[in-house]
Design goal:
three-stranded mixed β-sheet; alpha+beta; globular; 416 residues
Amino acid sequence: MASYTKCRKSLRTYLKSNNLVEPYRGLYALSNYWQRLSYKDKVLHIAIPLTQKIKIKEWKFTGETAAALKGFEVIKLYSNQPKSISIHVSCAYADKNLTSTSEKSAKKIARRQLKRIHLPDIVEDENGIRLEECYKRCKKQNSPKTCNSNVKTCKHTNEKKTSTFGHIKTMEEDAMSHVASIYNTLFVEAWTNPFRIALPTFDSASQKGENLEKIYNVCSEFYDFARYQCNASQLQDDPYLRKIYNPYFSNIDYTDALSRLKLLCNFASAKSENAGESLARATIIELGFIVPQIQYEFPNNKNPDYPLRADFAWNVNGNLIVGEFDGTDKYLIECGKSSVCNISKESSKNTIITDLHEKNMLLQYDRDAVRKERDRERYLYDCGVSKIVRFDFAEVIDPQKLEQKLASAGIPKAYK
């Protein structure tokens, strides 16, 4: 991270020649290296060094920034990735500039990469659960005070400080000390990202053991004052999806952060194996189809302790329909890093066009993987599956194509 003006000036030469990129002011990376990073890694590459620049201890990373630091899945569709990545921080006090009525000031704030959110953190320790502001008041008064947290009481005890003598914090550890609570993180994630982008994060949180029901209950108690967010993102990011009647979203006000949080907590599942499957399931839900069963198990005669699992399954009028999501690394070779192979809608059946730095890079099928999948399909049919529908990233990011494929397979909509 370049800290001095002279350093920045010398680096401008490399920026102009496209050898470097500046994803955040004063932060530089080699273009080839940056282009190959996944969106989550890009967020981490900005947030970790940025911690050194944050001098105000009350600022805490939140939303997708905190989620990435906590190790949760964080994604963005390549076509919707912003030119500059926003870093979200929450603090207990408002941004003074937000009170300005000037249109110029409003545009300047909107362009900021560092998005400050006026939202006190929720503190949870042996004294109970409370808002950060309440905790500070209690500490100043130096006396017990009952807070509105299911009659939880803030008791001040002499906390034993763990010695850190001899240990030098890594940059990652330092960044983690600036991360908001899980309550603050997921509450902000719920209204700053569309449903199908946020669901992979919630699936990942559930998979790591987070109690989503508790998270919703705590947020509904403490964050009711911040329930309505006028600058919330659209609940559905694709214009085609917004045109479809969806019974799951019919009564949701997209500015209602708590309703969005509840929706995500209800649909999240620890069974989802990766962000790609979560994105696919979220798109299926947004299209209004009945919700599939995840990781549906079939007996494995060769190894009974390890049953075969299908990504998705629907039981329709006694017929079992299986949905298989084909990720890029299942059939492709020569893909440097599969998680950053950004599939375009123009992908054909034989090749997949990526949006990596190298233009027109074509990836070839791994024939052995294709053969194994065919054998797997035969076995699933022998187990009583009536139909198998396969879809990939290219179809997931093009909801209309996915809708046509699922409908032709006989999967009904939830409202029919």
